[in-house]
Design a protein that fits this description.
Elements (H helix, E strand, L loop, with lengths): L1 E8 L5 H15 L3 E7 L3 H8 L3 E5 L8 H18 L3 E5 L1 H13 L4 E5 L10 H14 L5 E4 L2 H9 L8 E3 L20 E6 L8 H8 L7 E6 L5 H10 L6 E5 L4 H6 L3 E4 L8 H8 L4 E4 L14 E4 L4 H13 L1 H18 L2 H27 L1
Parallel strand pairs: 1-2, 1-4, 2-3, 4-5, 5-6, 6-7, 8-9, 8-11, 9-10, 11-12, 12-13
Helix pairs in contact: 3-4, 4-5, 7-11, 10-12
């Protein structure tokens, strides 16, 4: 089987990028061929090349809505697909999802779209959400299957008229297991809190800092992993709240598993989400989680058992949850153990890959039946 993956941008490496990379590696290990088509020629291209994954840059595939560039991108994608002749195309992210579906359908190639969180979910500005909702409704019939990464997103799609019960399926994100043992954190003196997230509108570092400013009586530090356009603003907020000596900005890192293994508490405070891989990384590392109850997050965090769910932009709830974990090492330990068990039972990469391959094979089988009937 030859699968071509299409994703919009190469200038940043987010959850969808890692998702595509890991699927490519698994396909190759299973004896299949995987190719990636991506906009631009940024660090993601370098990452794929280093991993031995075939990748081609699409010059006009950009994140912003630009009708002229978008038309050229469809032509580029169509030309690349006609040359590569894949058995199936798997598209990821909103822009690549739309343009990739158009190009694939024009060539009669079976195509899937994976939504890593809808661009019309709760928390997104209403005008932008309306535009993307309309676009997804129009594009839905072009896909043989639409994969959502959470039941929340599947229900949202069906409620908004994007796809139908047959075409929209949920496959929860999964992460490869780590062989290294989870660190015993019961003897930690200063508790280390970690949040891994890009500094963009989707993430809510401000609410986290406001919450932490009320916890200065306790012994903790926080590490913020990631980069992005809002980082200078958040750095300014840390100084304004008097937290500069407790907050470390680590930037984009390639050693996140090691950072998490040295931490005591993981937080993800967001305005909206799909099914965040960062929480899966934290569960895998054996960390209790404090996270905003948005998107598919409640499908990951068992509130009161593996961590705490908090309302969007509610700094008092964030502060209360973190305070409880800081003051009760035994609670941290219990939640960490149960979170790790939940990860192993429900969110491993092997489980996700098997479900994904089932969808690929189902789409190919349906296309074979359709083509056979058409010949008759």
């Amino acid at each position: 089987m030859h699968v071509v993956y299409i994703i919009t941008r190469s200038d940043a490496i987010g959850g969808a990028h890692v998702h595509v990379r890991d699927l490519c590696l698994a396909l190759q290990r299973a004896g299949h061929r995987a190719t990636v088509l991506v906009g631009g020629a940024g660090p993601y291209v370098e990452e794929l090349v280093d991993r031995g994954i075939e990748v081609h840059s699409i010059k006009n595939l950009v994140r912003a809505i630009r009708p002229g560039d978008d038309f050229l991108a469809v032509l580029e994608l169509r030309k690349a697909l006609a040359r590569l002749k894949p058995d199936i195309v798997s598209t990821h992210s909103s822009k690549a999802g739309l343009l990739g579906r158009i190009a694939s359908r024009s060539l009669g190639i079976p195509v899937l779209f994976t939504a890593h969180g809808w661009a019309f979910t709760d928390g997104i500005p209403s005008r932008s959400a309306a535009i993307y909702r309309t676009a997804e409704r129009l594009a839905a019939p072009l896909a043989d299957k639409i994969i959502t990464v959470s039941e929340y997103d599947r229900a949202l799609a069906l409620r908004q008229g994007v796809g139908d019960e047959r075409s929209v399926v949920t496959i929860h994100n999964g992460m490869p297991s780590l062989t290294a043992p989870v660190r015993d954190r019961r003897d930690s003196s200063t508790s280390k809190i970690v949040m891994t997230a890009r500094f963009e509108e989707q993430k809510d570092h401000g609410t986290l800092l406001r919450a932490l400013s009320t916890l200065v009586d306790l012994d903790w530090t926080v590490e913020l992993v990631g980069d992005g356009p809002l980082r200078p603003q958040v750095e300014g907020m840390a100084k304004d709240f008097g937290l500069a000596d407790r907050v470390a900005f680590l930037g984009a890192r390639n050693d996140v598993p090691e950072i998490l293994n040295a931490a005591d508490i993981f937080v993800l405070i967001s305005n909206w989400e799909g099914l965040p891989r960062s929480i899966l990384e934290a569960m895998r590392a054996g960390l209790p989680v404090v996270a905003s109850a948005v998107g598919g997050v409640p499908e990951l965090v068992d509130d009161g058992r593996t961590g705490f769910l908090v309302e969007r932009q509610n700094d008092r709830q964030v502060a209360s949850a973190i305070r409880n974990l800081l003051l009760e090492p035994s609670l941290r330990s219990a939640m960490a153990m149960q979170g790790r068990e939940r990860f192993e039972a429900c969110f491993t990469f092997e489980r996700m890959f098997a479900r994904t391959m089932e969808q690929y094979n189902e789409v190919l089988e349906q296309r074979y039946i359709y083509d056979s009937l058409a010949v008759q």
